[in-house]
Amino acid sequence: MEPLQQTIPAVLARLLRDAPLSPEKVTFAWRAAVGAAIARVSAVRLSDDGIVWVQCEDDHWRREIRRSATVIKERLVALLGVEVVKQVKVPGASPKRRSGR
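-> structure tokens emitted (101 positions)
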């Protein structure tokens, strides 16, 4: 018997992959991949070349999404397919660097 925590993501991925690609599908996959908190403070768009562009107004969340981009990409690939998602990019202000002085 397979645990429910493993079954639900597999079923969700299968359903998503079979559905036609649309902005709504990408938004749904984004919410499933990042959770409700990050989904509330961000918006996504998938370009034709497989880049998931993430818009976020807050520097804190922008840094968190950038820091987690590899994991987020893996989750999106699992939900949408390796042929659909190539990269996750978060444009905007760069994280502030501390001066060593």
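The two ends are 59 Å apart (CA to CA).
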